[in-house]
Design a protein that fits this description.
Strand order of the largest sheet: 3-2-4-5-6
Radius of gyration: 29 Å
Number of helices: 24
Helix content: 40-55%
Strand content: 15-25%
Largest sheet: 5 strands, parallel
Length: 657
């Protein structure tokens, strides 16, 4: 995968220096702020202190006052009100926020969350009929409803008032409801469109008189879990909500069950400890367990539901591995895919979205997984930046019974016989858009750092950029050095630890889930890495760790190109040999040491692009001497009887005589 710098054009050095001077910060930090569009001290202060920034106001959303009036009239009339939610974290949190609010206001309130299996996302006519029969007079949707045109008509026919609150993308026409409060409605205040469903529910609760502080922790969790852009209002919601997590007994019970109660709480805690367990409730059964955790009034109940969610998350992991294995059996790993559209007989509909994400990571193309549910297929898709999944669904909407979502993630259901025609139409659409195949998304890094740049003060500056997430990624840096002390760490050796060093500096390198690379990387020397840089505190001592995203051998591209041509064309052009002659040349003693170091890898195969500069020149000379062989861009040790003289080859003579 290509690595590219964010700076496509040179930065305005005078503007960066002015920003650095005004803030009293380091130059690399000033560059980071400049790339984020921050040009003045005032803008920097606003970005670096998100807790002090204002929250969105309820009035910024169209129909907000109308929605609140509908609810207030229903409460005054004693009508039964039902909150119609969703089974993911955002839907659960939005349901919780509005349920607590209406209960506080004395409403006759209940909630309903459809099950993934059998119902799927959004409003359903059978559920509306059921609620009407139970005497519900007002339905308020949260995190769904913007596509519920037929269901809105049914509510009207049954005499049930409907208020919709949502944040998913609007269609050309809105459902015919008493009020439609949706973050993505055109004509609203700037920054509102990026709010999640829980943030919309929070603003409705504020319109009804509830203080934001009582809901911010829940809204922050939903914002992170739903992968909303962490800029503007969302940045303020998450920054102000994180410190309030400790005041949410349900969330703390879940953290205790997960073993994270004593760790600092940040956006990573929300996204990787709490959110997966909350999501597991709906993925592996009934999402109401997650709502009950958040509204439970006693410790025993909270502990009970927290344990259930933790167990559901463990079961989800097992199911995820099973589905992933079965899905991969349907994929040709040698083909170039524009999109993968797969189906399974008994794949858990609550888990297929996660599996789709895993496959996207591996193949770099959109993935839609469908599973049987009665007489229809329920599907969940994940995409890449170059393809808008919601647009694709919208343009082929005739295949679907229901669909909704965003550019990067969406869900849909279809009749069984629509699968193959839909699959064909999708692939033809993408083939027309991308006749040469999908563009590969490069890894984009912030800047090039030397090891001496990676200081504790710099790491502390970087902490000010948090909370990190969508649209405010933790900065990724290109850092080069010599790799040493490669070792497996963690339970079962699943992670990797190493040292990156130069003559002047050393930096500890940590690679999560890279323990299987220890043997391969022990043979490397000069490398380039893409890392995040963070402060580390151990037994009262502060240091800096670099956390690895990618690693490659530090070998000039021209040299690698020349080496491949020489290996693949025995009479390689002299101009390419001259390129090799200009490179660093190890002596015979160094070559012997290099060969010993690489020998373990050569026994199983060492790819040419995994060899550093001096190692590559050594292997080229050993190849010419018949000590190693080369096939399919990979070097192997050759069984050789007796000693070989490496000084007789043409390349050796060119380089050393």
């Amino acid at each position: 995968m290509e690595w590219i710098a964010k700076d496509r054009e040179p930065l305005d050095s005078s503007a960066v220096e002015a920003l650095r001077t005004s803030l009293g910060c380091s130059e690399p930090f000033a560059k980071i702020l400049y790339r984020r569009g921050i040009r003045s001290k005032k803008q920097a202060e606003e970005f670096l202190h998100p807790k002090e920034q204002p929250l969105p106001r309820p009035a910024m959303l169209l129909d907000m006052e109308l929605a609140a009036q509908c609810i207030q009239r229903a409460i005054a009339a004693g009508k039964a009100i039902c909150i119609y939610g969703d089974y993911d974290v955002d839907g659960v949190c939005a349901t919780t926020i509005l349920y607590r609010t209406l209960a506080t206001l004395g409403a006759n309130v209940s909630y309903y969350i459809p099950k993934r299996s059998g119902e799927g996302y959004g409003m359903h006519e059978s559920s509306i009929v059921h609620l009407a029969q139970k005497g519900v007079g007002l339905i308020v949707t949260v995190d769904n409803g913007i596509s519920a045109h037929a269901e809105a008509e049914l509510c009207k026919a049954l005499g049930v008032e409907l208020v919709i609150t949502d944040h998913h993308r609007c269609h050309e026409t809105l459902p015919d409801a008493a009020a439609v409060v949706c973050a993505t409605r055109p004509g609203q205040a700037e920054g509102i469109a990026s709010l999640c469903g829980s943030a919309v529910a929070m603003l409705l609760a504020m319109q009804l008189g509830q203080p934001a502080e009582s809901m911010l922790a829940i809204a922050a969790l939903a914002t992170v879990a739903d992968i909303m852009p962490l800029v503007g209002f969302n940045r303020a919601i998450v920054a102000r909500g994180i410190p309030l997590v400790q005041k949410e007994p349900g969330l703390m019970a879940l953290l205790e069950t997960a073993g994270g109660q004593d760790r600092p709480i940040d956006e990573t805690t929300l996204g990787f400890m709490i959110a997966p367990r909350m999501n597991a409730a709906g993925r592996m059964g009934d999402a109401r367990r997650a709502v009950e955790l958040l509204i439970a009034g006693d410790e025993a109940s909270r502990r009970h539901f927290a344990a259930e969610l933790d167990a559901a998350n463990a079961a989800r992991k097992q199911e995820e591995q099973r589905i992933l294995k079965e899905a991969e059996q349907q994929i040709d790993p040698t083909a170039q895919h524009r999109m993968l559209i797969l189906r399974g007989e008994d794949w858990n509909p609550g888990v297929i979205g996660i599996v789709a994400s895993r496959i996207v990571e591996q193949y770099g193309c959109p993935v839609f997984l469908f599973t049987h549910s009665g007489e229809e297929l329920i599907g969940s898709g994940r995409s890449v930046p170059s393809i808008d999944l919601f647009r694709l669904l919208s343009e082929h909407s005739t295949f679907f019974m229901r669909f909704g979502g965003h550019a990067g993630a969406a869900g849909a259901s279809m009749p069984l016989d629509a699968f193959e025609p839909c699959r064909k139409a999708f692939l033809e659409d993408l083939a027309a858009q991308f006749p040469d195949g999908l563009p590969r998304e490069p890894l984009e890094y912030e800047d090039v750092l030397s090891l001496s740049d990676c200081t504790v003060p710099f790491a502390e500056e970087l902490e000010q950029l948090a909370p990190f997430g969508e649209s405010n990624r933790e900065p990724l840096f290109l850092i080069a050095g010599t790799l040493s002390a490669v070792a497996a760490i963690g339970r079962d050796g699943e992670h990797l630890s190493a040292v990156l060093e130069t003559q002047q500096s050393r930096l500890r390198l940590v690679g999560f889930r890279l323990g299987d690379r220890v043997k391969a990387w022990s043979a490397l020397e000069k490398v380039e890495t893409l890392c995040t840089v963070r402060k580390n505190e151990f037994r009262g001592t502060l240091s800096v760790n670099a956390y690895l995203t990618a690693l490659r051998v530090d070998c000039p591209a021209a040299l690698l190109e020349a080496a491949k041509m020489l290996l693949e064309e025995e009479s390689g052009p002299a101009r390419l040999r001259v390129r090799l002659a200009s490179r660093m040349r190890p002596d015979e003693t160094q070559m012997r040491t290099i060969f010993v170091k690489l020998r373990g890898r050569l026994q199983t195969g060492l790819r040419i692009d995994e060899v550093y500069e001096e190692g590559l020149i050594t292997l080229l000379i050993l190849h010419e001497a018949g000590i190693v062989e080369y096939s399919d861009e990979t070097f192997y040790e050759r069984a050789v009887a007796g000693k070989r003289d490496i000084t007789n080859g043409r390349l050796y003579s060119l380089l050393y005589r």
